[in-house]
Amino acid sequence: MNRLIAFVSLIGFLSSCSESPNEKPIHQVDSLLIVVAGAQGNLASLNSNDYSSLIDTVKQDVQFIQSQYPDTMDLQTALKVDYYYRTIKSVRKFSETYSSQNSELNFTMTQLNNLKNDLSNEIFDKKSFVEIFPSESKAVARHKESVENLKSWHESIGTAYNRHKPGIDSLIVYIKESVD
Fold first, then answer.
1. Which DSSP state fits 50?
2. Which of 18, 83, 89, 145 is the least crowded, having the fewest Cβ atoms under 10 Å away?
3. 88 with 58: CB under 8 angstroms?
4. Where are the alpha helices (DSSP H) in the chain?
5. Considering only CA atoms, which of 141, 113, 149 is closest in space to residue 26?
6. What is the DSSP letter of 18?
7. In a 10 Å sphere around its CB, with 0-12 CB exposed, 13-18 middle and 19+ buried, how is residue 58 labelled?
8. What DSSP state is assigned to residue 74?
9. CA 149 vs CA 97, 105, 138: distances in Å
10. What letter does residue 124 receive in the DSSP assignment?
C-alpha cells in the first residue's frame, strides 16, 4: 500500500514537472508583454500636462498682440504670431493622442494577458496561436513605434515654443513701448 501511494505520488510529481504543450507560445506572449510594458513605461515618462500651462500663456500673448498691435501686421510678423499660436493646437492634439495611445496600450496588455491565460489553461491551441501571433506582434511593434513618435513630438513642442517665444516677447515689448 505504501509503495502504491509512493508510486502514485511520484507519477503526480513527474507529470506536474513536465512542460505544458503551450510553453513556447507562452514565452512568446511574455516577450510581447515585456515590449508593451516598456512602451507603457516610455509613455508614462512623458507628461501630457507638461505643456498645458503653455496654452494659457500663448492665448494671453496672442490676445494682447491682436488687441494692442498699433497697425496692420506685415506678413512676417503675422506668420511669427501664427506659428507661435499653433503651439496650442499641437499641445491639444498631443494630449488627445497621448490618451488614445495609453488606452490602446492598456487594451493590448489586457488582450495579451488573456491570451497567456488561455494558453496556460490550454483553452487556446497552438494552431490558433500560430494564426494570430503574427498580427499581435505587428500590433505591438506599431505601439512601440507610436510611443517613440509621441516622445519625439513631446520634445518638438517644447523646442517650437522656445524657438518662437523670444520673438513674441520682443513683439510684446515693441507694442508696449509704442503704446506708451
1. T
2. 18
3. yes
4. 2-17, 23-45, 52-68, 75-120, 126-179
5. 113
6. S
7. buried
8. P
9. 11, 15, 16
10. S
Q: What angle do CA 41, 145, 88 make, to 5 degrees?
A: 80
Distances (CA, A) of 130 to 21, 49, 93, 123, 171: 14, 41, 37, 14, 62
For 64-119, write each residue's pLDDT tens digit.
999 988 788 899 999 999 999 999 999 999 999 999 999 999 999 999 999 999 99
pTM above 0.85, yes or no: no
User: What cell numbers appear for 103 in the block?
Assistant: 488606452
Who contacts 153 (Cβ-Cβ below 8 Å, separation ≥6)?
90, 94, 97
- The region that residue 146 occupies, defined by phi over 0 for left and psi between -120 and 50 for alpha, beta otherwise, is alpha
SS3 120: helix
Domain boundaries of the chain, sorted by first residue: 23-179
User: What are 65's three cell numbers?
Assistant: 498682440
Residue 62, C-beta contacts closer than 8 angstroms, at least 6 positions apart: 81, 84, 85
CB of 86 closer than 8 Å to CB of 62: no
Q: Is the dihedral of CA 109, 110, 112, 113 positive or negative?
A: positive
